[in-house]
Every structure is written in structure tokens, then in C-alpha cells.
TrEMBL record:
Record Gene3D superfamilies: 2.60.40.1220, Immunoglobulins
UniProt keyword annotation of Signal present: yes
Protein name per the record: Gliding motility-associated-like protein
SUPFAM superfamilies membership: PKD domain, YVTN repeat-like/Quinoprotein amine dehydrogenase
């Protein structure tokens, strides 16, 4: 898994310089005067008329380390490499008549940005309509506008003594470690040195006093030697009426910005015939010789002025006496001096001869005048002819020595706030200006090194690592060091959640329940959950905090701290399956025996047996389980535990004792004589098999017989007998005090369920025509006959329609069938009581009266009869009922 750690980069620079580098291609392009220019990129100066500035004095330009033009300025406008005004490149507040109107410096430790420092012209020339502007600086970012640059900040003031002031003089000097610069100006008797480092421009200058008070007429150059140890200042005037001026030399402390050891090479002297005005200043490439241009104006203005070049040997015990004057020609070359890439010093003659404007050149500026040998510097007054293109007075102002190393980590300057995490590959690169690099050595502070120009490296341990970049440039060693502080990752851990499920069952995992395990220190981290490691690394597709699954799944957890550093950890959602377990139940065993109980479950499971359903302590662990001796019904519970600790539900098994019960039967114990008796059963009602003695039931004779059943031996080896006594009885006739015959709706008042002779039974009612029967059925266990009672009724209707069925209403059939009945007379009446007819026992009515058919209706009859009882008694009776004639 890739781990990421926080990188907080700070820097501490140390530079160790062992030799001076002379490759200064940053000064390859000069633009000055009125569209005048020089190109030194080929090694030989070539006139370049593409420049767009039109200035009298100061300008500045900057090129890259290969000599490619980047941009240039006159202190008011900034032009890019295409000679168009840079984006936001107007409105700077230098002045075309300021000696050092502008100077361009690379921003320390930055590959793309540059400072443009500007300074106002002398106070006497500041127009009345605007205030004095003093020293200001601007910032250009060359990474913008497609590499053509943009001015991103403008006109930031650097007050002198809290007041916006200062004019004309501006020098830029590399500091002692070549990690920054000093911007130096002179104002009203003091030098002001502003330090420029990777942290910015200090607004608190180092102030060094001098004996020279410039006043308001303070034009003329302030220049540093190439090695930065010396500083020279020329004073000039801007009007012919100006006074005699001075030329001074100083020592400069590149480490502190202090200016000291003032030496007046010329001080004002009103006793002379000429006023001396010192404008151009330059040092030889070896920093030993000082050159100055001098204009000598006579107090008597009828005398011609004289222009000279003065040389001083700064290594001489008496510098003043080492002065050598040359350049005495008919050209007054009182303009600027500037050291070129070719090691020559160029002078702006500021003279328009008939054939144009020229730059002169000192061919051997490292050559001091030798009084012994007569060796002198060689001066070519008309080295470059610009024709009608005015060269003005000034030449570009440059930094005394260009060398810049700017280190980037992942494309950002180490001066910017940067947060990185280990595991993330860091890209180290640098840009530099000044000289050709012969070798590179990166030391990463943990024992690892690289000789690649732009290596990639990742740190795996926390702590402060001091990184050193060593460059060998033109034989000179440059060392940059900076510290990287690596802070460890969030203190987080892998985590897991476990759940026991039945196969196929799903569970909704609450992922937040693992936060305490993932983040035990409860750090203020942002935590998200992802389905893949790639999604977690890229912070894509975060999941909700509930995840439903039926199988083991890995969730990838991204833990990100407040600085954006993250680690990815695993949250394992582990699903263990609950084992299944079963056992047959109940199991019958013989009393006094043990039982071997075998549960069905996975072979990897642990099986526990319990004697109570909710018992926490098993009585046995293993499978099978041998029970103790069983003498009564006993129940056990069994569970299975998987290797992961998942516990099944408990299965129940009951051990039942093989019963000692005797066989029993459902066999009738009373039979009637000669009644059919079924075969005796070979198994009892409770399933016990055996044999009978006697082997069958004999109903041929009356009396009681004992039948014995002997069971076969059971599983426990026991056998049992059972006896049944079966009685065969004679047939009996039930006796009741009830007549067996009733007539004309008379019925017995009671039907007893037990006969007089003790026979039990029940009565059932049935019909057959106009006869109703009551039949007594004896119980099946009784050997008895049936007993019948008949209720003889009369016909309720007749239908005299000559169909041969019920054509006549008559009681003759009853009279003929029952001798106990003696019908005397029957009378028929209509419903009004009118006698319609009468007849005897065997007569009848055909439904007519006097030969006419009577209508369908209800009619009445009167029956007179005698009933003979079973005892022979005769009872006279009379019955009046209705009947129905139907047509």
C-alpha cells in the first residue's frame, strides 16, 4: 500500500563560493538612447536597432543564461522579447532622465520572477505637477502570457527615512552568499542599502554615512566592482552653472551592506580653472581598476570644455597617485561606462559628429598604466557607429554579478508554502543563471544522492532532512542547502468487523463502528470509504457509511488530515457462516442403558452438549456423545461452534424409555350364542405382536371363557401377557308394559330405555304408509331381540278421479288386518256438519252426494268402534277427525 507523509519545506541557504564566474549572458542585450541597442549573444557586439525605448539616460535589460532576451525597460515602460509592451508593462515610475532609471534583478530562489527597481530623477528636475517618487520596485512574472511575461506588481515604494525620496543613483550588488542582492542608493550624505532575499525586499535599509552631500544636483553613476567589494560614485551636474563635483571610492561589505573606507579620488576645488563633473563609472573585469568619465567645464565659458577618462589602480598603496588620464581627443565623451560580455568597457560619447553617434571602447580594461613600461589601456573612441540613432548619455544598469540558483519541488519554489506527503514522488529541479554547469550532486539528507539534473525522490521516514544541491559552474562550486521537514502520516490502523450469518443471509455493516479502531487517537481527519484501493487513492466514489453484504468484503478507507496528506487502510468486513446442526428425536432406549448421540454438522465445528436449554456450561464437548445410564425420559441440547466462533441454534434430542406396558385390545367381551366372532388380532392396539390361547372365539355354547395373549419379546428382551374374558349368552326377549298395537293416533305415553327384564337399548321411529312404528333396539352387548310398537292411523285424503288409486275413502283394509278392531259405523259430514253419507266397517265414500261429485275440500268423519285389549277387555271408542277430498 502506498503511504503518504506530510512534507513541510523550509529553507536555509548556504552558499560557498570558491571562484568567480565570468559567464554573464544575462547582460547579452543592451537597449539605450533613442532606439539604440547592442547584441553580445554571439560574443561580438552587434548593433541592434529593434529596441523601442527612447531615453536620455538610464535603462536596464535582462536575458537568460543562454543570452536570449527576456525583457528591457527605460524605467517607465517594459518591453518583452518581441519588442512589444509587456502585459501591464506601462506606468512604472522611473524617469528617462534618471542616471540609473531602472535595474533588473532575478527574484532570489525563483525561476520565473524578476524585480525592476526604479528611481526618480534629481529633485531639481521633478515636474511641479507630480510628487517626488523616490525608489520603487515592480515584479515581473515570466511564466505568464505564454512566456512573454507580465508585470504583476507595480510601484512599491522604499522610503528613505520614512519619506518617499531618492534620485538618480541606483546600484545592484550580489550579496556575500550570492543568494540575494543589495540595492544601494545615495541621498543627502548617506548611503542606503536595501537587502533583497528570497523572503522579499527589506524596507529597513542599512545606512552608511559619507562626507559627500549630493544636494539636488546629484546625477552620475553609482557602481560596484564585479566582485562586489568596492563601490564608486561620481557626482555631476545637470546645468552648466553647476559647481565642482566629486569622485569617491568605498569598500562594500557584501554580507552586511555596510559601506565604509571612503576615499575621495577627487574633491571639489574652486581654485582650479575647471569644474569637474564625474558621470560614467565602471570597474575592470578583475575589479582592480576604476574608470570614470570626467567633463571639465571652464569657469570661463569662453574656453572649450575637456572630456577625459580617468583610471585608478585600487590596489595601489596610494590610489590617488595611480590616476592615469587618457582619451584626450576632440570628442567630449562624458557619458556612461559599461562593462560588456566581451570583457571590454564601452563608453557613450554623447557626441553627434558629422558622421553619427558612437560608442567608444576600452580594449584592455584590466591593464593598469605602468610608469615603468609605459603600458596603458587602449582606447578606441569611435568603436561602434550608430549613425543618426542617438545613443543618449546613459547605458543599461546591470547587476554587478549574475548568478541565481532557484530550486523547485514539484514545480513550486521552496520559498512558497508547500505540503507534500511521502509516497508521493517529489520532483526536484532548479533553474540557474550565470555560467555553464559541469556537474550536479543532490544529497537528500537520508544517505541517498543523485547526479541527475532533475531527480525524483520520495521520503519514507519522518524528520528533518537537510538537502544539499552542489553545482560545479565554470570550475566554481556553488552549494545550496535547504531543510525538508517530514511529518508522519495520520496515526491510523487497519480494522475489521466480524459477523456470523446463516448462508445466504445479508448484514448491513455500520462502517462508522470501526472509526475508533481506524483512528484510535481520534485525530481530526477526514475519513471516507471506497470499494477499491484505486478509488481510495484518487478519492473517487466515496461510499455511504452502511454497507450490506452476505460475504467477506474489503472496504478501503481513505484517512486524510487537515494538510491534505492521506493514508489508505483496509477495513475487512468478515462474514463467518453459522454452522448447521441436526439430530433425530425422539430416540427410544431401554431403561438402564446408555445412548450414543451423533449430531449432523460440519466436521470442523466444535460440538457442545447441554442438559438444559439455556445452560452456559456444556456437559460434554465432542461428537458423538455417550450419555450416562438412562432410567427415565431425558432431554439434551446440542450446538455447533465454527472455528471462527459462530454458534448455531441448539438442537433438541429426547431419549424416551422403551415402555414396559402390557398389550391391550378393543375386543367385544359378550357374544350371543352362535353369533359370528372375528379372528383374534395378532397385534395389540398398542402395536405389540403375539399369540392367543385359545386361538379363536367359540360362540357355539354359552358361558364365559378366558383368552390369553402372549407378546413376542420386545427390543429390551421383555415379553408380556394379557387376558380377556369373553361371555356367550342366550337370546332374550325384551319385556315392556306397553301394548304393541295402537289405533287412530293413540300412542304410548312412555318408551322406557330398559326393559322390565333389564335389557338396555334405544327406540327408533319409522313409517310405512299410514302405520307408524316404534322399534326398540337392544344394546350390542345384549343378546336380545327387537321389540315393535305399531300406531295404526286412518287415511288423511283420497282422490276420486277413477285412476284406481285412492278413489274411495275407506277403513276396510284396517278392519281386515287387525282382529283387535271392530268398526261399527262411519259417518261423513261436510264442513258445515251436514251428513253426506254413512257406512259400516267395510264400506266407503266415493266423494259424491246424491249422485253428484262433491268439491275438493276438507270434510269430517265420525268413527264408532270397539277395541279388544290383550287381556280380552272390550272398550268402546269414538273418533271424529277431518279428511281431505282432492280433485
Amino acid at each position: 500500500m502506498k503511504q503518504n507523509f506530510l512534507l513541510i519545506i523550509s529553507f536555509i541557504f548556504g552558499v560557498y563560493i570558491h571562484a568567480q564566474n565570468n559567464g554573464q549572458m544575462q547582460t547579452a542585450h543592451w537597449y539605450f538612447g533613442d532606439h539604440a541597442g547592442l547584441d553580445f549573444s554571439s560574443g561580438t557586439p552587434v548593433i541592434d536597432t529593434n529596441g523601442q525605448i527612447a531615453t536620455i539616460e538610464g535603462s536596464s535589460s535582462i536575458s537568460d543564461e543562454q543570452g536570449n532576451l527576456l525583457f528591457y525597460t527605460d524605467g517607465r515602460r517594459v518591453y518583452d522579447s518581441t519588442h512589444n509592451i509587456m502585459l501591464n508593462g506601462t506606468g512604472l515610475r522611473g524617469d528617462r532622465s534618471s542616471t540609473s532609471s531602472a535595474v533588473i534583478l532575478p527574484v532570489p530562489d525563483d525561476c520565473h520572477r524578476y524585480y525592476i527597481f526604479t528611481i526618480d530623477l534629481d529633485a531639481s528636475k521633478v515636474p511641479s505637477w507630480r510628487p517626488q517618487r523616490g525608489i520603487e520596485y515592480n515584479i515581473v512574472d515570466m511564466s505568464l502570457n505564454g512566456g512573454l511575461g507580465e508585470v504583476v506588481q507595480k510601484n512599491i515604494s522604499l522610503p528613505l527615512n520614512g519619506i518617499i525620496q531618492g534620485y538618480e543613483k541606483l546600484a545592484a550588488i550580489s550579496n556575500a552568499t550570492k543568494t540575494g542582492y543589495w540595492i544601494v542608493t545615495h541621498f543627502q550624505g548617506d548611503f542606503y542599502a536595501f537587502e533583497v532575499t528570497s523572503t522579499g525586499v527589506s524596507t529597513t535599509p542599512v545606512i552608511s554615512p559619507s562626507s559627500i552631500y549630493g544636494g539636488v544636483e546629484n546625477i552620475g553613476y553609482l557602481k560596484a566592482s564585479p566582485d562586489g567589494t568596492k563601490l564608486a560614485m561620481g557626482m555631476s551636474f545637470s546645468v552648466p552653472s553647476g559647481t565642482d563635483k566629486s569622485l569617491s571610492l568605498y569598500s562594500f561589505n557584501k554580507a552586511t551592506g555596510n559601506i565604509h573606507n571612503e576615499q575621495l579620488l577627487y574633491s571639489p576645488n574652486t581654485s582650479q580653472d575647471y569644474k569637474h563633473h564625474f558621470y560614467g563609472i565602471e570597474f575592470s573585469p578583475n575589479s582592480n581598476l576604476l574608470y570614470a568619465t570626467v567633463r571639465k567645464l571652464p569657469y570661463d565659458q569662453t574656453v572649450d570644455k575637456i572630456c577625459e577618462i580617468w583610471q585608478f589602480n585600487t590596489n595601489s598603496p596610494n590610489i590617488n597617485t595611480s590616476k592615469y588620464i587618457f582619451g584626450l581627443e576632440n570628442i567630449c565623451y562624458g557619458g556612461a561606462l559599461q562593462l560588456g560580455l566581451d570583457g571590454k568597457i564601452y563608453i557613450n560619447t554623447h557626441t553627434n559628429q558629422a558622421n553619427g553617434y558612437y560608442l567608444g571602447r576600452i580594449e584592455n580594461p584590466n591593464t593598469a598604466y605602468n610608469t615603468t613600461t609605459g603600458e596603458t589601456p587602449i582606447f578606441t573612441p569611435e568603436y561602434l557607429n550608430f549613425g543618426n540613432t542617438s545613443t543618449g548619455v546613459g547605458l543599461p544598469t546591470f547587476l554587478n554579478h549574475y548568478f541565481r540558483i532557484a530550486i523547485n519541488v514539484n514545480g513550486l519554489s521552496i520559498q512558497e508554502d508547500q505540503l507534500y506527503c511521502t509516497g508521493e514522488l517529489l520532483s526536484f529541479d532548479f533553474c540557474h543563471q550565470g555560467g555553464e554547469i559541469q556537474s550536479v550532486l543532490w544529497e537528500f539528507g537520508d544517505g541517498s544522492t543523485s547526479t541527475e539534473f532533475y531527480p525524483q525522490y520520495a521520503y519514507n521516514t519522518a524528520g528533518v532532512h537537510s538537502i544539499t544541491l552542489t553545482l560545479m559552474v565554470d570550475g566554481e562550486e556553488f552549494i545550496r542547502t535547504f531543510d525538508i521537514t517530514i511529518t508522519g502520516p495520520p496515526e491510523v490502523s487497519n480494522a475489521e468487523q466480524e459477523i456470523c450469518l446463516y448462508e445466504g443471509e445479508e448484514h448491513a455493516f455500520n462502517l462508522t463502528e470501526s472509526l475508533a479502531d481506524i483512528n484510535p487517537s481520534n485525530g481530526n481527519h477526514q475519513i471516507s470509504f471506497h470499494l477499491t484501493q484505486e478509488e481510495a487513492n484518487n478519492n473517487n466514489n466515496p461510499q455511504p457509511t452502511t454497507y450490506t453484504s452476505n460475504q467477506t468484503t474489503t472496504i478501503w478507507v481513505r484517512v486524510e488530515d487537515q494538510q491534505g496528506c492521506f493514508v489508505v487502510r483496509e477495513l475487512d468486513l468478515i462474514v463467518y457462516f453459522i454452522p448447521t446442526i441436526s439430530i433425530a428425536s425422539p430416540i427410544n432406549i431401554c431403561s438402564g442403558n446408555t445412548a450414543t448421540l451423533q449430531a449432523e454438522t460440519e466436521t470442523t465445528s466444535t460440538v457442545n452438549w447441554y442438559d438444559h436449554e439455556n445452560s452456559a456450561t456444556p456437559i460434554y464437548t465432542g461428537n458423538p456423545f455417550e450419555s450416562p445410564i438412562i432410567t427415565q425420559e431425558t432431554t439434551y441440547w446440542v450446538e455447533a461452534i465454527s472455528p471462527e466462533g459462530c454458534i448455531s441454534e441448539r438442537a433438541k434430542v429426547t431419549l424416551t424409555i422403551e415402555t414396559e406396558e402390557k398389550p391391550y385390545f378393543d375386543i367385544p367381551t359378550i357374544y350371543c350364542i352362535n353369533e359370528y366372532a372375528p379372528p383374534l388380532p395378532q397385534k395389540s392396539m398398542n402395536g405389540i405382536a403375539g399369540t392367543w390361547s385359545p386361538s379363536f372365539i367359540n360362540t357355539a355354547t354359552t358361558g364365559s371363557t378366558t383368552y390369553t395373549f402372549s407378546s413376542l419379546p420386545n427390543a429390551c428382551g421383555n415379553s408380556y401377557t394379557s387376558q380377556i374374558e369373553i361371555t356367550v349368552e342366550d337370546i332374550k326377549v325384551p319385556e315392556f308394559d306397553i301394548p304393541t298395537l295402537y289405533f287412530f293416533n293413540e300412542e304410548p305415553s312412555e318408551l322406557p330405555l330398559i326393559s322390565k327384564n333389564g335389557i338396555k337399548g334405544y327406540w327408533e321411529e319409522s313409517f310405512n304408509g299410514h302405520i307408524k312404528y316404534y322399534t326398540f333396539y337392544p344394546d350390542e352387548s345384549s343378546c336380545a331381540e327387537y321389540f315393535n310398537v305399531q300406531i295404526i292411523s286412518y287415511p288423511k285424503f283420497f282422490t276420486p278421479n277413477n285412476d284406481g288409486i285412492n278413489d274411495t275413502w275407506s277403513l276396510a283394509d284396517i278392519q281386515l288386518k287387525y282382529k283387535e278392531l271392530n268398526i261399527k259405523h262411519v259417518s261423513i259430514f261436510d264442513r258445515f256438519g251436514k251428513l253426506l253419507t254413512g257406512f259400516g266397517a267395510y264400506g266407503g265414500w266415493d266423494g259424491t252426494y246424491n249422485g253428484k261429485q262433491m268439491p275438493a275440500n276438507d270434510y269430517w268423519f265420525k268413527l264408532e268402534y270397539t277395541l279388544t285389549t290383550p287381556d280380552g277387555d272390550k272398550i268402546e271408542k269414538q273418533l271424529i277427525k277431518n279428511l281431505t277430498l282432492r280433485r
